Amino acid sequence: MVPVTCFAGKRVAVFGLGKSGLSAIDALVAGGACVVAWDDNEASRDALGGRLVEVADLREVDFCALDALVLAPGVPLTHPEPHWTVLKARESDLEIIGDTELFVRELAARDTGAKLVAITGTNGKSTTTALIGHVLTSAGREVQIGGNIGTAILSLEPPRDDLVYVVEFSSFQIDLTPGLKPDVAILLNITPDHLDRHGDLEHYAAVKARIFALQGTGDTAIIALDDDVCRTISSTLPPSVDGVSISSESTVLDGFYAAGGQLYRARGGDGSLYADLREIVSLRGDHNGQNAAAAAGAAEALGLERDAITQGFATFPGLSHRMEQVGELDGVLFINDSKATNADAAARALSSFENIYWLAGGLAKSGGIQNLNEFFPKIRRAYLIGDAAEPFAAFMQGAVDCKIVGTVERAVSVAAADAVADGHRPAVVLFSPACASFDQFRNFELRGDAFRNAVHALPGVQKSKGN
User: Fold this and answer.
1) Quick one: 305 and 368 in the same domain?
2) Within this chain, do residues 307 and 337 fall inside the same structural domain, yes or no?
3) What is the domain extent for residue 170?
4) How many other β-carbons are positioned within 10 Å of the β-carbon of residue 25?
5) Pairing between strand 242-247 and 163-168?
6) Beta carbons within 8 Å of 42's beta carbon, 6+ residues apart
7) Do 105 and 90 have their domain in common?
8) Cα–Cα distance for residue pair 372/189, rounded to 1 Å
9) pLDDT in tens, 54-65
10) Cα gap 347→300, rounded to integer Å
C-alpha cells in the first residue's frame, strides 16, 4: 500500500466504495487523514468492515468543511450529467480527484526517484501495460503493475528509488488526475468509446491527451500514428519532451513500427529490424505489433537494451481474456477475446485469423458492428448471443451465415461441432463479442471464464498451457 501522507490531518470524503475507493480509504487513513466515506449502495457500504472512517451520507455533510472529494472513476463527472456529489462539490469549490491523483501527488511529494509509465488508449492498453511490466521484470527491474488493469494504484508498494510503476489509465481516471506527469506516457489509439460519459469524441480525445499535458524535459511521450485523432494530438506534444512515434500501419521517422509480424526501429527515417514477432503466440496480429512498438519505446526510455527487450517479448504469456488461446480440438483453436467489448477491439482479433467461427453479441455499444464489414469474408459462421443477437444477425444478413444461440455455452458447443465437421484448416472458434457483457454477465472476466469453461468441457479438447 502507498500511504497518502500528503493529506495528513485533512478531512477527505470518498464516494464510491469499490476496489479503488476502499484502497483510497486505507491509504488516506494510513497517511493520517480523516475520511468520510459513502456509497449509495448498502452492500458497498458493508464492505467497509471495521475501517476507522466516518460513514455518513454525503448529502448531509458540509462540503465546505472538507479538503477534497475522492470520486470513484465509475461515477459520472460530466456526462450524461454530473453526479450529485460533483454538483455539490462544485457549489462548495471543493477539489474533485481520484485515487490516481492521490498516488501521483504522493509520488511527487516523496521524490524517491521511482518512475511512472502511464498507458492509455481506447484499445490495447491492458496488453501493453502487461507487456511493458513483463519486459522490465524479465530484465531484472523492480516493477509494480496496476491501475485500470486490475490492481488499485494505491494498493501497490510504496515508492522507492529502484521502482518502476507501470500503470494503465482509463479516460475516467485521467479525468480525475489533474497532476498526472508520467516519466513515460503512451497513447495507443482513439476511437469512439465511452461517449455516453464524455459527450462526444472531441471531449474524449481531449481527456486522453492530458496524459502528456504536464510532461517536460527528460520525459518521453510515445504516441501511435495510426488514427487521425492521435496524429493531431502528436502535433501538439510539448516541444521539450522526447517524442517517440509508433505505428502498425506505416513507417515512422523516429520510433518503432511493425509490418508483416516484424518490429522495426527507425532513426531519421531509416528502419532496421528490431524483433521478429511472428512466432510469439501472445503477440500475434497487427494490433500486437503496435503494442510491442509501445513497449519497446518505453523500455528503451528506461534504459533497457534491445536484447533484453526482445527476450522479454519472447517469454510474454499474454493476458487472460485478450486473444488468449484456451484450447485446441482436431486442429481448431479456441480463442478467448472476451475483453473485446467494442467493435474496434473485435476488429483486431478478426484481422488475425482465417476460417473464423465467430462468437459475438452481448450489450451492443454505439455503432454496433458497422465497421466490421471488411472482415465478413473471413467468417465461416457467426454464433450470436445476448441482447445484440437479432440486430447483429440482421446487419450481417446475406454476408455471413448466422445462428442465434442465446448463451456462451450453447455457442461453444455448436461452433465447435461446426468447425470440426467443416474441415477448414487452420480454423478458429473466436469469442470476440464486440459488446459489453452486462446483459448476461457482471463483467467481461466472468464472460471469458464461461467461454473457457465451456471449451474445457468439450470431449477431447486439449487445454492450452496455463489453462
Assistant:
1) no
2) no
3) 100-314
4) 24
5) unpaired
6) none
7) no
8) 17
9) 999 999 999 999
10) 29
Burial class (CB in 10 A: 0-12, 13-18, 19+), 276: middle
Q: Which of 333, 279, 322, 271 is nearest to 296 (CA)?
A: 271
Dist. CA 33–CA 84, nearest whole Å: 24
Question: 340 and 376: one domain?
Answer: yes
- The values of phi and psi at residue 290, to 5°, are -65, -45
DSSP-assigned letter for residue 158? P
200 and 233 belong to one structural domain: yes
**Which amino acid is residue 73, in one-letter code?**
P
Residue 422 pLDDT > 80: yes
* pTM for this predicted structure: 0.84
- How far apart, in whole angstroms, are the C-alpha atoms of residue 127 and residue 285? 13
pLDDT at 244 over 70: yes
Residue 79 C-alpha cell reads as 456526462
Residue 308 belongs to domain with CATH number: 3.40.1190.10
Q: Which residues participate in catalysis according to the annotation?
A: 125, 148, 194
Q: Which of 293, 314, 335 lies at the terminal end of a domain, its last residue?
A: 314
Domain count, the chain: 3
Q: Which of 22, 54, 18, 47 is nearest to 155 (CA)?
A: 22
Q: Name the strand (E) or helix (H) holding 446.
A: helix 444-456
- Can you tell me which residue has the cell 467489448? 341
82 neighbors 28 (Cβ within 8 angstroms): no
From 148, 17, 14, 176, select the one nearest 82 (Cα to Cα): 176
pLDDT digits (tens, 9 = 90+) for 327-378: 999 999 999 999 999 998 899 899 989 999 999 999 998 889 999 999 999 9
Alpha helices in 316-407 (DSSP H): 343-350, 389-396
Cα separation of 299 and 159, whole Å? 19
The verdict on 372 and 256 lying in the same domain is no
Domain shared by 151 and 83, yes or no: no
Residue 291: which H helix or E strand, with range? helix 286-301
Considering the domain architecture, whether residues 111 and 238 belong to the same structural domain is answered as yes
